[in-house]
Amino acid sequence: MTDPVPSHPLFIEPVNTLEQLIRTGADWLDSYPLSYGHGTDNPLDESAWIALEACDLSPLEPLDDYAIPVRQAHLDRAREWYRRRAEENIPVAYLTGRCWFAGLEFATDPRALIPRSPIAELIASRFEPWLASPPLLILDLCCGGGCIGIATAVEFPQAVVHCADLSSEALELARTNRDHHGLQQRVELYQGDLFKPLPAGAQYDLIVSNPPYVDQRDLQQMGGEFHHEPRLGLAAGADGLDIAHIILEQAATHLKADGVLIVEVGNSAPALEQHYSKLEFVWLDFAAGGQGVFLLTAQQLRAAFAPG
Q: I need a surface site. Which of 165, 255, 258, 289 has the fewest CB within 10 A?
């Protein structure tokens, strides 16, 4: 591949230390019109992620000395990742093949979205104070690579978790992640359209969903990074609510009497509230940032969508 900036120090000058690699890499990334949001929100943090992974160091573990030398093999790997991140807009998690969600490591590739939902914060807090008791049966609907369901299973070791997705490819990735965390006995995978593939009569204490919710306009304006992700996991019609409508209309029949539904709809939240003006959505707050996640109880859903 031809280097569009042949004079950049990252590629023509010696890079001896990890700190030097991170700083020159950040300068390289900053020279491109990149979109962030798949794990970091700025070039310096993005560069640190690339450099640490390239040097076989965990981005999650504290490092006391950034003056450590960089081996040539690690530098070659880092340069290739920097180049592809900048020139092809590939998210770092797809370059390295892994990321972290709710403190857990997950395999990542273009079969599913890169996990980044603020729902991770709800899992860490055990969904307090919203659940009457620890859940025993949980549904991760539109599970993608399985991060929400798997992290919830880890947090609630007494629970069985069902993960459902329309994409058989995403479920293959979810299976890899489930097996990596040794949860074959408690995390069950179902392929099909929303609630249709689930066991007949299953009643859940908690349904969590991060479904497709990007509207047509936002999808067209997204940076190139998002177009490396499966469109099936993003696009949801003109107003971003095609999937949310079905979830709301059908969730009540799959919840226990004191069950709870939590769904992320992102920027489509105003359109959702306008459409269901009589529903009292609880919009959840997140200390680490994030918005567009609502909570409804089984009672609210049954009252709003009761037959007749």
A: 289
How far is Cα 175 from Cα 192, in angstroms, rounded to an integer? Answer: 15
* Distance, CA of 145 to CA of 124 (rounded, Å): 19
What span, in angstroms and rounded, lies between the C-alpha atoms of 291 and 278? Answer: 21
| Cβ 175 vs Cβ 165: under 8 Å | no
Contact 120, 43 (CB under 8 A): no
- The answer to the question of residue 266 being in a domain is yes
- Per-residue pLDDT tens over the stretch 168-206: 999 999 999 999 999 999 999 999 999 999 999 999 999
242-250 helix and 298-305 helix, angle to the nearest 10 degrees: 100
Closest by CA to 255, choosing from 141, 155, 158, is 141
3-state secondary structure of 169: helix
Cα separation, 174 vs 10, whole angstroms: 36
CA 30 to chain centre: 24
Tens digits of per-residue pLDDT, 123-132? 999 999 999 8
Give CA–CA dist 172/189, Å, rounded: 9
Domain with 148 in it: 103-305
Phi/psi of residue 25, nearest 5 degrees: -65, -40
User: Helices 168-180 and 147-155, interaxial angle, to 10°?
Assistant: 30
Interatomic CA distance for residues 136 and 158, integer angstroms: 6
Give a yes or no: residue 285 inside a domain: yes
pTM for the predicted model, two decimal places: 0.90
End position of a domain, from candidates 33, 67, 96:
96
